[in-house]
């Protein structure tokens, strides 16, 4: 009693509750009584009390709680009531009561909420509140699934339309999208999309496409595309068209856009994606747009960034190694680093190329001492040393060919082959009307010298990657039938795959497969060659992004024996589903990785693959590696999950188990798979895992882990990673192969002096660059058997990374395509899909003036009202236009 007196608010609340209970009881009595005249007024009052009841978000409204006991009585009354408005109103009340705990499990099972709603007034259902609408949505989905006849669907359709309209006008657009996706009626949605909600709805729909099948994905993307085009969001519409890889939709975007500045922006997006777009010559801006799409501005803009950051001074490999910081005992210094080792000179050639990428000058090759440095390498080493000139002059088609041209007239075939490859590298990602790469390299395609053939064909593959040009393919395809060398066949297959990347045409891959089948018939042992894996990868690259359209090549590979058949089929899945995040494919691949493979008795494979010498590697290569399909599957898991953040995080955990319990081949693939999942993004957790693998007793696992460290830090200048690599250089001072990999990794970390990235995701991580991803896959597949390729004589395959290199910048241009500085806010990207209101898209904000270097997980937005931009967020090259307010002032 004392506590009730002490708390008058509680006492008042109790009295209110009793009063409400009595009032509800009286109303129920009137509704269930025999006086028909009292029923309509009682029902209206009951409706009013339920609709106006307020309570906390975590508890049931009091009227619903107090009326629970009368639920069955009201149902019985409804049954006996004559047809008319009172009966319909009572059905509405019962429907709302069924939403709570009134009817118990029986009401949920019978879907009383939906059943009585359909027999009610069907007017203003939104007045009962959002929770009621959600309960109806849930029961509609269940009813739709169970309903076998169209009549049931027709009964539901008016209610569905009411619910969608309510959701779209009450900030519940996400629920509207979910409902229509669940009942497969998305075609109804455009009717309810309005200028104030289209962004939120389309953004949510597109984010759902990673979790649905191909047919549903295409339907959702097309709906979103139409809405973006309708509301003149041309850049976002183009992104969807590129995701669908639909030429017709891409052309529609360009045709519907009339603003010159937006057209420039669309062209820059296509150029970054390396999309082979053919423009209408009649366009007034044709020349500028063609230059943009051809990437002719790339080198000039990159050098302007370098001058702005004051990093034009060339660097020596020693500036990267910082050997003076390595605590190497004097005895090891005499044996190792101070010796003029050909392998260390080769590593320095790569590092020199990586570090000075795109700057057009260096201290080893650009001066008169170029010949001197090249001759400090051995045979095949001279090829890679000369080819590094291509990286130094990357994207500079006009000025980069002259310094390389003089090496074409040397008598040494290795140097000449390196120059041919360098010519191809210079033309990476740049289209030129004169086709200098084709003009200079075509004469060497059918050369009798194998080394010159390799340099020319790989050069053409890199120069025309993603171009899908038939004339280029016609030049290099005949080599598949004329050459007897497996190495030349492997490089030709890779080049064909790169040129026809994403074409999804059966002509090129069928030619390669015919050669493989013929080889299998005449030289069965050839399938065991490491080069056969590269030939298979060439076939797979032709179907990049094809998704489930790989039935033809999959059936064609049935003629091969295991494990080669599974290997090539896994490669097809790796390329066709790359970056899709398809959960079913990832599960299928993980199941393959987890299988225990027992080699046949007649062809025993050593249980332990701890390779300590080249001799052991040679012996092993003569036998089947029965787990190589699983190794490719591990890489495929990383490739498929790439770009889908939750999937990438989950598979990285699974890779930890693979590394502990997997087969030896799988253990070699795990560090590479982890690196692909975190490319140019040195997260501490990934860094620690790869550092642990870099000390592995298996030499090949250690080598791949060290290279993986280079990949995750590529172009970041990460200080922690650099210090870790210096420690590894000391740890592996006696092991030439591991030390070679450490040096390569150091070069990758400091690539482009910290201004570039290997990450193929671009335009706010919405698009996956197929050419960039292909470059990474070629190198990582080569490293599945490092001692046979990269650490042997095929180290030139590392230059396939050249097609993946892109500046990691935010560059702002004006309407005349001139670089202009502007203030931007940069921070960590935040996922705002489905969030209420207008949440911030970045956190941890810092204000900078462009040009700005962006890390993988960073996002930028304008910090000034002076300009407006035409991309979803600021990323890469952005064309700005003065805003209307700025023009008026």
UniProtKB/TrEMBL annotation:
Comp. bias regions, Basic and acidic residues: 612-623
Superkingdom, natural source: Eukaryota
Domain 26S proteasome non-ATPase regulatory subunit RPN1 C-terminal stretches: 833-884
GO CC term (a single one): nucleus
Any Pfam family hit: RPN1_C
GO molecular function, one term: enzyme regulator activity
UniProt keyword Kinase present: no
Keywords noted in UniProt: Proteasome, Repeat
Region feature Disordered, mapped onto this chain: 596-623
Xref: InterPro entries: 26S_Psome_Rpn1, ARM-like, ARM-type_fold, Proteasome/cyclosome_rpt, RPN1_C, RPN1_N
GO annotation, biological process: proteasome-mediated ubiquitin-dependent protein catabolic process; regulation of protein catabolic process
Assembly and interaction partners: Component of the 19S proteasome regulatory particle complex. The 26S proteasome consists of a 20S core particle (CP) and two 19S regulatory subunits (RP). The regulatory particle is made of a lid composed of 9 subunits, a base containing 6 ATPases and few additional components including PSMD2. Interacts with RPGRIP1L. Interacts with CRY1 in a KDM8-dependent manner.
PANTHER family assigned: 26S PROTEASOME NON-ATPASE REGULATORY SUBUNIT, 26S PROTEASOME NON-ATPASE REGULATORY SUBUNIT 2
UniProt family annotation: Belongs to the proteasome subunit S2 family.
Role according to the record: Component of the 26S proteasome, a multiprotein complex involved in the ATP-dependent degradation of ubiquitinated proteins. This complex plays a key role in the maintenance of protein homeostasis by removing misfolded or damaged proteins, which could impair cellular functions, and by removing proteins whose functions are no longer required. Therefore, the proteasome participates in numerous cellular processes, including cell cycle progression, apoptosis, or DNA damage repair. Binds to the intracellular domain of tumor necrosis factor type 1 receptor. The binding domain of TRAP1 and TRAP2 resides outside the death domain of TNFR1.
Protein name: 26S proteasome non-ATPase regulatory subunit 2
Organism the protein comes from: Rhynchophorus ferrugineus
């Amino acid at each position: 009693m004392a506590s009730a007196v002490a708390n008058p608010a509680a006492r008042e609340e109790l009295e209110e509750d009793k009063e409400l209970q009595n009032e509800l009881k009286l109303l129920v009595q009137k509704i269930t009584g025999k006086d028909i005249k009292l029923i309509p007024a009682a029902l209206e009052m009951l409706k009013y009390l339920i609709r106006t009841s307020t309570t906390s978000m975590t508890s049931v409204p009091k009227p619903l709680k107090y009326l629970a006991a009368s639920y069955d009585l009201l149902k019985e009354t409804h049954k006996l009531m004559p047809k008319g408005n009172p009966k319909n109103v009572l059905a509405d009340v019962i429907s709302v009561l069924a939403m709570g705990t009134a009817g118990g499990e029986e009401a949920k099972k019978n879907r009383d909420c939906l059943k009585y709603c359909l027999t009610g007034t069907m007017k203003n259902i939104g007045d009962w509140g959002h929770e009621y609408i959600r309960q109806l949505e849930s029961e509609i989905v269940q009813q739709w699934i169970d309903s076998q006849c169209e009549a049931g669907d027709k009964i539901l359709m008016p209610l569905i339309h009411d619910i969608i309209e309510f959701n779209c006008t009450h900030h519940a657009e996400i629920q509207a999208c979910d409902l229509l996706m669940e009942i497969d009626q998305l075609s109804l949605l455009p009717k309810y999309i309005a200028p104030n909600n289209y962004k939120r709805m389309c953004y949510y729909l597109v984010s759902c496409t990673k979790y649905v099948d191909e047919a549903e994905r295409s339907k959702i993307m097309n709906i979103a595309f139409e809405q973006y085009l309708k509301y003149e969001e041309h850049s976002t519409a183009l992104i969807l068209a590129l995701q669908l890889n639909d030429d017709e939709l891409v052309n529609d975007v360009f045709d519907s856009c009339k603003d010159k500045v937006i057209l420039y922006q669309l062209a820059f997006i296509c150029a970054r994606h390396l999309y082979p777009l053919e423009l209408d010559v009649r366009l007034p801006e044709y020349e500028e747009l063609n230059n943009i799409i051809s990437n002719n501005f790339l080198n000039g803009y990159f050098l302007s960034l370098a001058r702005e950051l004051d990093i034009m001074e060339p660097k020596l490999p020693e500036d990267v190694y910082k050997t003076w910081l390595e605590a190497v005992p004097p005895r090891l210094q005499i044996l190792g680093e101070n010796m003029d080792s050909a392998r260390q000179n080769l590593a320095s050639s790569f590092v020199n190329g990586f570090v000075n990428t795109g700057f057009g000058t260096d201290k080893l090759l650009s001066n008169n001492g170029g010949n001197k440095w090249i001759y400090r390498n051995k045979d095949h080493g001279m090829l890679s040393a000369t080819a590094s000139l291509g990286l130094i002059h990357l994207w500079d088609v006009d000025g980069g060919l002259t310094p390389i041209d003089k090496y074409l007239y040397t008598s040494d075939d290795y140097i000449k082959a390196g120059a041919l490859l360098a010519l191809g590298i210079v033309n990476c990602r740049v289209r030129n009307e004169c086709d200098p790469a084709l003009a200079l390299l075509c004469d060497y395609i059918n050369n009798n010298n194998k080394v010159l053939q390799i340099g020319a064909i790989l050069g053409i593959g890199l120069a025309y990657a993603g171009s899908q040009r038939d004339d280029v393919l016609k030049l290099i395809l005949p080599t598949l039938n004329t050459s007897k060398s497996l190495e030349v066949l492997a490089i030709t297959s890779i080049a064909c795959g790169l040129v026809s990347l994403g074409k999804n045409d059966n002509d090129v891959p069928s030619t390669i497969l015919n050669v493989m089948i013929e080889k299998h018939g005449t030289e069965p042992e050839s399938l065991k060659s490491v080069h056969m894996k590269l030939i298979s990868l060439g076939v797979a690259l032709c179907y990049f992004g094809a998704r489930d359209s790989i039935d033809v090549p999959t059936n064609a590979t049935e003629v091969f024996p295991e494990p080669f058949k599974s290997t090539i089929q896994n490669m097809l899945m790796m390329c066709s589903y790359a970056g899709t995040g398809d959960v079913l494919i990832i599960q299928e691949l993980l199941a393959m990785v987890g299988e225990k493979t027992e080699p046949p008795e007649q062809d025993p494979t050593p249980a332990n693959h701890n390779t300590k010498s080249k001799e052991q590697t040679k012996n092993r290569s003569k036998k089947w590696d029965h787990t190589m399909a699983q190794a490719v599957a591990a890489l495929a898991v990383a490739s498929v999950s790439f770009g889908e953040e939750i999937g990438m995080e989950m598979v990285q955990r699974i890779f930890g188990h693979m590394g502990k319990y997997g087969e030896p081949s799988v253990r070699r693939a795990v560090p590479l798979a982890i690196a692909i999942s975190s490319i140019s993004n040195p997260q501490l957790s990934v860094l620690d895992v790869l550092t642990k693998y870099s000390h592995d007793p298996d030499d090949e696992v250690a080598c791949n882990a060290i290279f993986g460290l280079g990949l995750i830090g590529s172009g970041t200048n990460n200080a922690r990673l650099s210090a870790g690599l210096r420690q590894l250089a000391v740890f592996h001072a006696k092991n030439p192969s591991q030390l070679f990999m450490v040096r390569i990794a150091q070069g990758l970390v400091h690539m482009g002096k910290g201004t570039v990235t290997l990450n193929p995701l671009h335009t706010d991580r919405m698009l996956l660059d197929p050419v960039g991803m292909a470059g990474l896959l070629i190198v990582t597949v080569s490293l599945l058997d490092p001692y046979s390729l990269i650490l042997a004589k095929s180290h030139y395959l590392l230059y396939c990374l050249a097609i993946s290199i892109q500046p990691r910048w935010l560059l702002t241009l004006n309407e005349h395509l001139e670089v202009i500085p502007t203030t931007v806010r940069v921070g960590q990207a935040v996922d705002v899909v489905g969030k209420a209101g207008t949440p911030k898209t970045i956190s941890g904000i810092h204000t900078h003036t462009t040009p700005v270097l962006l890390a993988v997980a960073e996002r930028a937005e304008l910090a000034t009202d002076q300009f407006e931009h035409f991309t979803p967020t600021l990323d890469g090259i952005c064309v700005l236009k003065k805003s209307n307010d700025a023009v008026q002032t």
